[in-house]
Amino acid sequence: MRFASKSPDKFGEIPWRSTSEGLPIIDECRLVLQCRLFSTLPGGDHAIIVGEVQEIVETRDVPAMVYADRRMTVPAQETQVG
């Protein structure tokens, strides 16, 4: 939600680090992808940026966050049967 806010300091209280290219990576996120710009589309009062995945940089076994119905949720864990 911080990145959707009007706050000028998007990374203020979020632990993060830089890649060798100077790109930000948020610590302890589930997935880090290296992308190249594929296209930019109009999105009302903002732009929608579409990236083409070039590399999976990191993965972590932590719950995913999903934005649905105007709120952040953590989906129920899948259970294995048998």
Sum up the structure in keywords:
mainly beta; 82 residues; two-stranded antiparallel ribbon; Pnp Oxidase, Chain A; globular; two-stranded antiparallel sheet
Describe the structure.
With 82 residues, the protein is an all-beta fold. It has a single domain, classed as Pnp Oxidase, Chain A (Roll). 0% of the residues lie in helices and 48% in strands. It contains no helices and six strands. The strands form three sheets. It has a two-stranded antiparallel sheet with strand order 1-2. The protein has a two-stranded antiparallel sheet with strand order 3-4. A hairpin with a 5-residue loop joins strand 1 and strand 2. The model has no long low-confidence stretch (mean pLDDT 87).
What proportion of the residues is helical, as a percent range?
under 10%
The chain-level structural class is: mainly beta
Radius of gyration: 16 Å
**What is the mean predicted local confidence, pLDDT?**
87
Subunit arrangement of the protein? single chain
